[in-house]
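CapA family protein
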Amino acid sequence: MSDLTRTPRKGPHRFSWALIAALALTACAPETDEDDDAPAGPTDSASKAPEADSAEEEPEAQEEPAQEAEESDQFTIAATGDVLIHDNVIDEAAALAEGEEYAFAPLMSGVEELIGGADLALCGLEVPIAPEGVEPVGYPVFAAPSELADDLGSVGFDGCSTANNHSFDQGVAGQERTLEVFDEAGLGHAGTARTEAEAAQPQTFTLERGGREVTVAHLATTMIHNHAFPPPEDELWRVTDVTAEELTAQAAQAREDGADVVIASVHWGEEYVHEPTAEQRDYGEQLAQSGEIDAVFGSHSHTPQPVEHLDGGPQDDGMWVVWSMGNFLSNQDEACCIPETASGIVAYATVEVSEDDAAVVAMDWLPVTVDRGPTDDEPHRGIWPLRDLAEGEIPDSVELSEATIQDRWERLLEVMTDQMLREEPPASTGSDPTRVPRSD
């Protein structure tokens, strides 16, 4: 596989593009009173050709050259909560592959349309890949099978944040192996690095939209570390842990180097709570006031936390933040933890492209939830679109009770509210993004 491109996304997407709905939701967003203009649709201005007076006067029909479809002037960036590969997830991935390797894609297939239809999709990888010779293992010291990277790509992810409190569960060997495997899979990565030069570079992606090339820079940082597995004291650059001022400087440099849009993944806050901490809010507000970052995707709590529109932003018309997206692929739910750990959200940032600018104009979300047995002896059954389940669209393979589904749905809405809930998954608006390798 080329180092510069991703493999094509698999599977058809049955949903139509819902950006008009996303923009409509922006009008209801907190802290803003301005309505976004709806994108122009088809018009009826084309006049009918006059009818010929006779057959002799009718001009000879000529075959018109095919018109190339123009790239859309909008696209969607999706981000998800924690990819947290516990033992039961590893065991089921091995069983699905009949013992020959690991197959994680089937566990994510139920939500593939929520990921693959986005124009750029990013995960929060909260585990290192197992170094050569190390057996995969889950909590408390994670080491994921290398097949995970290819399977993330196969369901539509283009890259992941790798900065978090589990980045060094397998030491430098695991941290470097993670980036090596991601490079081999053609996936981007942000937040950890093998060299100081690589640490200074964001992960960038380019997309052809609005008749031009648009560059998106992805930054990532963590405010949390596990004291038992810290980064090397003489190589702290291996994982990004920076102040809001320092992250702002990185974003400003990315823009100077050509980025049109800068997004940041931030691992912060407290576990198992439903609102941002004072420290989170202060950090996020500093980023918003900096005017260099378009949107922030938060993680670490393992529970969903709200989407908010903060004052500031690159255009001084606000910066979108989701304080935490909760869990994505994990083995947490009511059986082990608080009920809200069973669910997470996919957050969607809508980017509008003009001739000389690009900006995030909306953020909305769709919910996901895990289906696992009440004990670790039972198989992990993957993740599913929670709203679909709550509305009665329950596949035969899902073993969650209706009562459990409704309880999870109501808990999620209580935290998130339904104000910015997306109507349906997005559909791609153009060609796949190109990953630009980070300098090493």
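thats it. The chain has one domain: 74-432. The two ends are 19 Å apart (CA to CA). bye
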